[in-house]
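---------- Forwarded message ----------

FYI, see the DUF2000 family protein record below. Original note from H. follows.
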Amino acid sequence: MRFDTKIGIVVREDLAIWQKLNVTAFLASAVAAEAEDAIGEPYADASGNAYLAMFRQPVLIYSADGEGLATVHTRALSRGLATAVYIEEMFKTGHDAANRATVEAHPAPDLPLVGLAIYGPRNPLDKTLKGLTLHP
């Protein structure tokens, strides 16, 4: 099935595995919170147990170095795509308000990015992610 929209998450390649997973989970939650149309219906098994709804489409995870993240960030903002950021200082905070404060302390070109999530129409998003490779 081909979707009109796309979800892309870009994670800095030099992070520890636990950091990559943590960044990916937080960024995916941002897309879920913002893009109601990206969420499918709840699940249920044959025993009658109910399960939470998930994204209705694949989430593609890419890998990039710091420069690649900065390039994608600039492209996403210039195209007006829904974007979430995760920066280095967020590994040291313990709650949402502190996370927001760390982001607010940096101008966009100086964000110490470790990850991005981008959601939007397929074609602009493909152009934004051009040149990146899927995470191994």
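H. also flagged this: The radius of gyration is 16 Å.
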